[in-house]
Automatic annotation (TrEMBL):
Domain Type I restriction modification DNA specificity, first and last residues per copy: 70-182
Protein family (similarity comment): Belongs to the type-I restriction system S methylase family.
Cross-referenced Gene3D superfamilies: DNA methylase specificity domains (3.90.220.20)
Taxonomic source organism: Faecalibacterium duncaniae (strain DSM 17677 / JCM 31915 / A2-165) (Faecalibacterium prausnitzii)
Keyword flag Transit peptide: no
SUPFAM superfamilies (alphabetical): DNA methylase specificity domain
Recorded GO MF terms: DNA binding
Superkingdom per UniProt: Bacteria
Protein name: Type I restriction modification DNA specificity domain-containing protein
Keywords assigned by UniProt, alphabetized: DNA-binding, Restriction system
Record carries keyword Membrane: no
One example of a Gene Ontology biological process annotation: DNA restriction-modification system
Pfam family, one: Methylase_S
Amino acid sequence: MRFNLWEDCNRVPLTELLSFIVDNRGKTVPTAPSGHKLIATNCVTNNTLFPVYDKIRYLSEETYQTWFRAHPIPGDILFVNKGTPGRVCLVPDPVDFCIAQDMIALRADESKIYPKYLFTVLRSREIQQQIYNTNVGDVIPHFKKQFLDQLLIPIPERSIQESIGDLYYVLSLKAERNKKINDNLAA
């Protein structure tokens, strides 16, 4: 018997599978010479599980405490809205950064979906194509937050979600570790 996730499962709008969205978009955050890390969209890649710290900026404690509507927590999924929409990665534990414009953090409702499965599906060719098809903007592509409910996520039974999500996570972690070993050997 053949099982096809995209054909054999009910699909649910992404927004119905979330308990919270961290959305600090809207205005440019004031930066400081040091302090809390502020990551940008270049730090989120579909090639790593967690953000990379490339060209980060910093925020003062006051800005960190007062400027933001909310901060991501471990296990949230960072989702790029502008530039290269659809890139996603996980928020690590502990969280040592904050996010501002051009990305949001999605918090899965664990009573409805296994978070690692949601992360895996958001990286799938099918969902990435849905995101690409809804991009707007000729010069700088962006994905509007109101399009999140158009992303239809297949929902298999929980044990299948856990198997898919855990397998993808473990294989991705192993691939990242092997890359670091190879980079160290090459150096």
